[in-house]
Amino acid sequence: MQRSSYRIVSYKIRHDYNVGEFLNSYKHLLQKAIDDIWDNMEWVEKKQRNYYVIKRGKRKIRKHYYVKRLIPIIPKSREFKRALRSQLLEDWNYASHYVDSAIKTAYSILNSWRRNYIKGKRGRNKPVVKRKFVRVKETLYRFRDGKITITIKPRQFYLEFDLSKAWFKNRIKGCDLGELILKESELIITFRKPLGEEKVSECIGWDLNLFSMDGFSPRYGWIRVDLRYLYHIHRVHEVKRRRVQSKASKKSSLKTIVSKHGEREKNRARDYIHKLTTQLSKMFPNAVHGFEDLDKQGMRNRSKKHNRDVAKQNWKQIIQYMSYKSRVKLVDPKNTSSTCPACGGRMMKLRGGQVVRCEKCGLTLDRQLCGAINIYLKMCGFPPSPSTFYRVVIRKMIPQWKVRMRGGRGVTTNGGKDDDMPPMNPRGGPNLMNPQGLHRLTKAYVS
Fold first, then answer.
1. In the chain, N or C: fewer CB atoms in 10 Å?
2. What CA–CA distance (Å, rounded) separates 384 from 407?
3. 3-state DSSP call for residue 328?
């Protein structure tokens, strides 16, 4: 993930302005812009290679076949954009710069749809605008003396917001005001916060799992964050929603309760993730956090329970929140839990997949710890080899383990917990773990 010289932060302000008619007009304007661009798109037929895997005994053979597929080409010439702007201005009764905002938003929506269409995640269906919002450009508002004045109709209708009394006024000192997003009852304000020279002293590789978030760093060892409460939030609302849905099919007035359960679930999960990522960024202020570039579409299989468990996860949201609170680096998730970090061999699953053992060198590790170590090595650019594993992982951890053993904690084979780090919250926080099986390889190297 590319690092810029500033960080984007956003805050909300409630308002009671009557902007319903304006938002409806902008919604229709945005949909009209999408329709015009869609009608002028060209569909080019191209060959595409599709892959599939067949099993022959224990071997897996990857094969492919070619298919013809229509690829959309979105018109982006100056002449087309100029004609589109002139057409949209004909029946527009508000400030003309909102037309430019609508065109920019329409291209953003269609470019996002095109990327997902090429990946096979979207069909040939035109995007439809459902939400009421307006992206206010910098040319449509004025910010003076702590007050924001937004132009709706020039010399007729303005909106004014006073930031001098806002609760976040001390947090935005020295920040530049960015784009605004106007909704029916709130205004979302974005600020560009300049970044100073941040010192990077360590890297932490994080393996995101169903009930835990496992990290590895030579300085701290194995760090485990309990995510069972986050899973509990989704599971509780799933059960409640299922009960109401069975009754809502017979009584239509209960459909609003179903949607309330969905909103409540999102808010509770978002609150938990905000607290989690904030605490991690405070505990490791000078660290680069490495995550897998996960895609839920490729994780689904024929098991309904497995697919529902995958759908409940907030992995992307955790990475997104961490990206503006600390430094984040994404790595390829391929074979992170099935590759030996010491020799690069294949890891064999034991004890129902909780423990893995290398078929080549015999290294035995917890599966989640193995994934965290591989993510750490990938984000640092180290290939899996015995010398690299000893130099980068084992050698740096030996002094830390000796200090722990002097304190009476020791290193156990079952992965005992350590309380050196304060808890994140009462429902479960990060704990230092003793890497299971890793101490045996350490003794082999030291001797």
1. C
2. 32
3. strand
User: Are both 112 and 61 inside the same structural domain?
Assistant: yes
Predicted confidence at residue 409, as pLDDT, reads: 38
Sequential DSSP letters for 10-52: EEEEE-----HHHHHHHHHHHHHHHHHHHHT-EEEEEEEEEEE
Q: What is the pLDDT of residues 168-205, one digit of tens each?
A: 888 888 888 888 999 999 999 998 877 665 566 788 99
Contacts 24+ apart (CB under 8 A), 114-123: 114/72, 114/74, 117/72, 118/71, 121/297
* 63 and 98 assigned to the same domain: yes
Q: Looking at the domain assignment, is residue 119 inside a domain?
A: yes
Q: Clarify whether residues 103 and 212 are in a common domain.
A: no
Both structure tokens of 411: 């290193």
At 275, list the tokens: 């607290």
- Whether 351 and 332 map to the same domain: the answer is yes
pLDDT above 70 covers a percentage of the chain that reads 85
Domain that holds residue 74: 6-194
- Give pLDDT tens digits for 264-298: 888 999 999 999 999 998 888 888 999 998 877 77
What is the reported pLDDT for 38?
96
In a domain, 240, yes or no: no
- Do 70 and 164 lie in one domain? The reply is yes
- What domain count does the chain have? 2
Q: What is the pLDDT of residue 2?
A: 44
Measure the CA–CA gap between 88 and 81, rounded to whole angstroms.
11
Q: Are 406 and 423 contained in the same domain?
A: yes
Residue 230 burial (10 A CB sphere; 0-12, 13-18, 19+):
buried
Residue by residue, DSSP assigns 378-439 as: HHHT----HHHIIIIIIHHHHHHHHHHHHTT----TT--EE-SS--SSTT---EEE--TTHH
Q: Specify the amino acid at residue 183.
A: K
Residue 162 within a domain: yes
Residues 309 and 440 in one domain: yes
Are both 180 and 319 inside the same structural domain? Answer: no
Q: Given a cut of 70, is residue 33 above it in pLDDT?
A: yes
When pLDDT is cut at 50, 70 and 90, the band that residue 60 belongs to is: confident
Closest CA to 386 of 421, 417, 356, 358: 358
Using only C-alpha atoms, what is the Rg of the chain? 27
pTM tops 0.70, yes or no: yes
Residue 47 contacts residue 66 (beta carbons within 8 Å): yes
d(CA 344, CA 338) in angstroms, rounded, equals 9
Q: Where are the beta strands (DSSP E) in 93-199?
A: 134-136, 141-144, 147-153, 157-162, 176-182, 186-194
Report in angstroms the alpha-carbon separations of 182 from 131, 226, 269, 289, 318: 11, 37, 25, 33, 26
